[in-house]
Amino acid sequence: KEVFIVSKLAIFGGPKAVQSDPKDIFTWPIITKEDEDAALEVLRRGGMSATDVTIKFEEEFADWQGTKYALAFNNGTASLQAAMYGCGVGVGDEIICPSVTYWASAIQVFSLGGTVVFAEVDPDTLCLDPKDIEHRISDRTKAIMVVHYLGHPADMDPIMEIAKKHNLKVIEDVSHAQGGLYKGRKLGTIGDVAAMSLMSGKSLAIGEGGMLVTDDREIYERAVVLGHYEKFNDSFETEYLKPYTGLPMGGYKYRMHQISSAVGRVQLKYYDERCEEIRKAMNYFWDLLEGVPGLKAHR
Ligand SMILES: *Cc1c(COP(=O)(O)O)cnc(C)c1O
Question: DSSP H helical segments within 8-51, as ranges?
Answer without folding.
Answer: 33-44
